UniProtKB/TrEMBL annotation:
Organism per entry: freshwater metagenome
Molecular function via GO: threonine-type endopeptidase activity
Biased composition (Low complexity): 249-272
Gene3D superfamilies per record: Glutamine Phosphoribosylpyrophosphate, subunit 1, domain 1 (3.60.20.10)
NCBIfam families in UniProt: 20S_bact_alpha
Region (Disordered): 234-292
CDD domains: proteasome_protease_HslV
Protein name as annotated: Unannotated protein
Gene Ontology CC: one annotated term: proteasome core complex, alpha-subunit complex
């Protein structure tokens, strides 16, 4: 009879946590920023169909990083829970805190059970109030822990580098334009292959930006920002990449006689492959081919 394979609970939890963290770090970062009139979510997402930021209920939004199929299941479950609670009781009974607690229980149960792998996801659940002081942002990790965030937060990808940029450039109580610029600038501040942080310009069509706008007159406060509106808010950010800057034409102009250095008819052009015949050093005449 073979002995069963034993792993200590501490080692098992550590391995599951490392597995989840590695999967989350492979994705692109999601940034949440508070501004005067609401809460902004931003992420680099070229896909127009697979969203990282979505609406849950009237004043509640959801953002996630990690495996899409896993956090999409969580999003759908949150929408169903909010609809059922709002229908059975009252729409005011649907709160971001309640959804965050439900997500925490689900993620914690999956992480601690040994029957299936942990979810490789991290979540943001945000709810806006009637005033900026009433806004709430909850961050949920893969193991079910809940953290109450303020002002700004980032998860996934190069979260440490992006968080340092937000800490240096964030201004509390700013406008929507200020929030968009600092969030997009933070997403573009990522490390290169050598680990050195550098700034790059992300095209507006590759950005997914949404807001919870408390100034909106409708009960639903969730709004997605189109690429055209993003371009207007971001303004001139310079070239999108170094290749977009066309170098100045350094080729020399035409030479006297109407030929250019690339003209094969020019007998002095050595780059075209046409080499003038050498003269005989004694007679000064062109050499004569030897008889065949």
């Amino acid at each position: 009879m073979s002995m069963p394979f034993y792993v200590s609970p501490e080692q098992l939890m550590k391995d599951r946590a490392d597995f989840a963290r590695k999967g989350i770090a492979r994705g692109r970062s999601v940034v949440v920023v508070q501004y005067a009139d609401g809460v902004l979510f931003a992420s680099e997402n070229p896909s127009q169909a697979l969203h990282k930021v979505s609406e849950i209920y009237d004043r509640i939004a959801f953002a996630a990083v990690g495996r899409y199929n896993e956090f999409e299941n969580l999003r759908i479950a949150g929408v169903r829970l909010a609809d059922m609670r709002g229908f059975a009781y009252d729409r005011r009974d649907v709160t971001g805190r309640g959804l965050a607690n439900a997500y925490a229980q689900t993620l914690g149960t999956i992480f601690s059970s040994g029957g299936e792998k942990p979810y490789e996801v991290e979540l943001f659940v945000a709810e806006i109030g009637d005033a900026p002081e009433a806004d709430q942002i909850f961050r949920l990790t893969y193991d079910g822990q809940v953290a109450d965030e303020h002002r700004y937060a980032v998860m996934g990808g190069a979260a440490d580098v992006v968080g340092v940029y937000l800490q240096e450039h964030y201004t509390e109580g700013g406008s929507l334009q200020d929030a968009v610029r600092v969030a997009v600038g933070a997403l573009g501040h990522t490390p290169d292959d050598k680990g050195v942080a550098q700034d790059r310009v992300i095209p507006a069509k590759d950005l997914e930006v949404a807001i919870l706008d408390r100034t909106r007159q409708r009960p639903r406060k969730f709004v997605r920002l189109s690429p055209a509106r993003l371009e207007a808010l971001l303004g001139d950010r310079g070239p999108l990449s170094p290749s977009a800057v066309q170098p100045e034409d350094s080729s020399p102009g035409p030479v006297p006689g109407g030929t250019t250095p690339d003209d094969p008819a020019d007998p002095t052009d050595l780059s075209s492959g046409h080499v003038p015949p050498l003269e005989d050093p004694t007679s000064g005449e062109p050499p004569v081919a030897p008889p065949s």
